[in-house]
Amino acid sequence: MFRSVALFALILLVKESQQACSSTAALTTCTWDTFKSTKTLQLANYKPHLTVSKGNLERLPNGAFKLVPEVTTLQLSGNKISSLEEQALEGLEDLKQLNLYDNQLTSIKHNSLKHCKSLERLDLGMNQIASIHDKAFENVKKLTYLNLAFNLLKAVPVAIESLPNLENLRLDNNQIAILKAKGFSGLNKLKELSLNDNQLITIELNAFQGLSKLERLNLKVNFLRTLNVDDIVDDVRNLKEISLSVNDFKCDSLREILDEFKKNDVLVTNGVSRNRNSINGISCKSL
User: Fold this and answer.
1) Scanning 45, 84, 140, 207, which has the fewest C-beta atoms within 10 Å of its C-beta?
2) Each residue of 182-199: b (16+ CB within 10 Å) or e?
3) Cα 133 vs. chain centroid, distance in angstroms?
4) 158-190 pLDDT, tens per residue?
């Protein structure tokens, strides 16, 4: 009798999940309110690319995806998820892409991603993240792309040091004021680093130490007044392009910076300023 009741309940649960989800040749889409009626998604047939529609989803239940282990891409953007609990992503051992862009996350805890050891791309942009546990990324060492733009970070998170395969790091539009020495240690495969629209006033010596593969560096829209070009090119020997527009450089200082980068075959991207006090479209202050 008990088995029959349990089986009947399971069948109803699967039917409810299937009614809230639909599949095309390429992906499976579930409405955001699917998790109102079920804590664990159960689908007879689903695609590796799973999207939860934009809406008012505030929380992912523990074990929400443990019965869809073949999912490799999970899209959760445009919801109101405020936390990522330790078991929320249980079962997603083959997950390669996770998109949590435009939610309401405030922190990334120690074991939030412990079930995602195959993860290669992680988008946490446009949240309210102010803190990231130092070991938050220790289980996602295959990560090559990390977006932390449009958050509330005041420093480069120590947690990134656990990402030896990272190639692209976006830290735009945060509140970072200082780049500390060796702050990017361990990222010896990083090729692109974007720090535009922060509050940068200081870049310590050896801030970019270890970034031997870095090719593009974006420092636009900050409050930089000086830049030690020799220190940067010594640490970032593969640097090909740097963006410096909209900072607080004096014109004489900016001219020296541009000349030094040119001598080292580093392209400084032109700005768009038409102000009389500008060089190559990069605004500067006269004495």
Assistant:
1) 45
2) ebbeebeebbbbbbbbbe
3) 15
4) 999 999 999 999 999 999 999 999 999 999 999
